[in-house]
Automatic annotation (TrEMBL):
Function as written in the Swiss-Prot or TrEMBL entry: Catalyzes the formation of N(7)-methylguanine at position 46 (m7G46) in tRNA.
GO terms of molecular function: tRNA (guanine(46)-N7)-methyltransferase activity
Pfam families: Methyltransf_4
Keywords from the named record: Methyltransferase, S-adenosyl-L-methionine, Transferase, tRNA processing
Descriptive protein name: tRNA (guanine-N(7)-)-methyltransferase
Keyword DNA repair found: no
Residue ranges, annotated region (Interaction with RNA): 158-163
Keyword Transport: no
Start and end residues of each stretch annotated as Disordered: 1-22
Residues reported to bind S-adenosyl-L-methionine: E77, E102, D129, D152
Record's compositionally biased regions (Pro residues): 1-12
Top EC class of this enzyme: transferase
Entry's family note: Belongs to the class I-like SAM-binding methyltransferase superfamily. TrmB family.
Record lineage: Bacteria, Pseudomonadati, Pseudomonadota, Betaproteobacteria, Burkholderiales
Length: 244
């Protein structure tokens, strides 16, 4: 990662400005977390990283055809975690190409390991903040789709402003979607789902593909965490909107 993330703890004295007002912060698509690397992930990073991990280069729009060696619809995924769902979706939608953004090295290593083990050719990775990748390297009106699955819900009310799906960021996403392109979000936190629905429904350039929440599209697999939650009676909400 070429730029240091904001490491100010949420409750530190520097986290709020004078008079109790929150300071203005650039949108971040991630939260810094520690993680241990397994030997398989380390090996995958070393052997497959040079081929599948793209360098972050500001003000350098990607040439998708050059990157993937073909012309196909391109989907951007923001925050793919350990990459299991990303790998499955890329295999299911083999006629699409996928660009995944994830700052956490164990997740990047895990997805590279899956790419190598399962022979998945249509994934490329940025180990960098997705907001900067979007602004600096993704051509406008070029994406067939954007996936944002289970972003940090920031449960505490005073931290809700840190949630990713808010009006300014959604406006950035819309700029990079092609006409007819879709935005697919999913969350297992109902208050965040309600916020997502409100924010996305308020965007005049987006149209909901469902009446409210969408049924889970067939291409999105259930994660182990999601399966466990569903067995415990927890809900999962999908939202799929298309650019007009």
């Amino acid at each position: 990662m070429t730029t240091p993330p904001d490491l100010t703890p949420p409750d530190s004295p520097d986290a709020t400005a004078a008079d109790g007002e929150a300071p203005r912060r650039a949108i971040k698509s991630f939260v810094v977390r520690a993680g241990r690397m397994g030997t398989g992930q380390i090996k995958a990073l070393a052997e497959l990283g040079p081929r599948y991990v793209l360098p972050y280069q500001p003000a350098t729009p990607l040439n998708y055809e050059a990157v993937f060696g073909r012309r196909a619809p391109v989907v951007l995924e923001i925050g793919f975690g350990m990459g299991g769902a990303t790998a499955q979706i890329a295999k299911t939608l083999a006629d699409h190409d996928f660009i995944g953004c994830e700052v956490h090295e164990p997740g990047v290593g895990a997805l590279l390991k899956l790419i190598g083990e399962e022979g998945i050719p249509n994934i490329r990775i940025f180990q960098h903040d997705a907001v900067e990748v979007l602004e600096q390297m993704i051509p406008k009106a070029s994406l067939a789709g954007i996936h944002i699955f289970f972003p940090d819900p920031w449960h505490k009310k005073r931290h809700n402003k840190r949630r990713l799906i808010q009006t300014p960021f959604v406006a950035k996403l819309i700029e990079h979607l092609a006409p007819g392109g879709y935005l697919h979000c999913a969350t297992d936190w109902q208050p965040y789902a309600e916020q997502m629905l409100e924010v996305l429904s308020a965007e005049p350039l987006l149209q909901n593909t469902a009446e409210g929440y969408a049924e889970k599209p067939a291409y999105r697999p259930l994660t182990k965490f999601e399966n466990r939650g569903l067995k415990l009676g927890h809900g999962v909400w999908d939202l799929v909107f298309k650019k007009r």
